[in-house]
Specification:
The protein is α/β, with parallel strands linked by helices. The N and C termini lie far apart (31 Å). A 4-stranded parallel sheet has the order 1-2-3-4. The longest helix has 12 residues. It has one domain: Metallo-dependent phosphatases (Purple Acid Phosphatase, chain A, domain 2, 4-Layer Sandwich), CATH 3.60.21.10. The chain contains 3 helices and 4 strands, in the order βαβαβαβ. Helix 2 links the parallel strand 2 and strand 3.
């Protein structure tokens, strides 16, 4: 088992906030993330998704971004980031994403 961590994916499958406005390195970034993931992550590995998962403002729109990663291998742990505005309630999110992700509570800042 390996443990991977990735953050700031800022997926935007439903909202108009493309990342390629930040330069050519961001073109097709979602496919690049998925391809890299497939080359590295196995079923028993753990992937920490350390915040800023989606640009979505509403949970329904974020669920489309979850679809991007649900086909990928590994046990995924989702931690809320400061740009995850769609994340209104941990209970509701656990009910929606329970089979795909383990949803961790964000630790208070010290």
């Amino acid at each position: 088992m390996k443990i991977y961590a990735i953050s700031d994916l800022h997926l935007s499958t439903r909202c108009e906030k493309p990342m390629d406005i930040f330069g050519k390195g961001w073109e097709n970034y979602i496919e690049n993330i998925k391809n890299d993931w497939r080359q590295k992550v196995c079923d028993d590995d753990v992937v920490l998704l350390c915040g800023d998962f989606s640009w979505a403002m509403q949970t329904e729109d974020a669920m489309a971004d979850f679809d991007v990663l649900k086909e990928l291998k590994g046990k995924k742990v989702l931690v809320r980031g400061n740009h995850d505005y769609w994340w209104k309630s941990i209970g509701k999110l656990r009910n929606r994403a329970d089979k795909l992700f383990f949803v961790a509570k964000r630790q208070p800042e010290i």
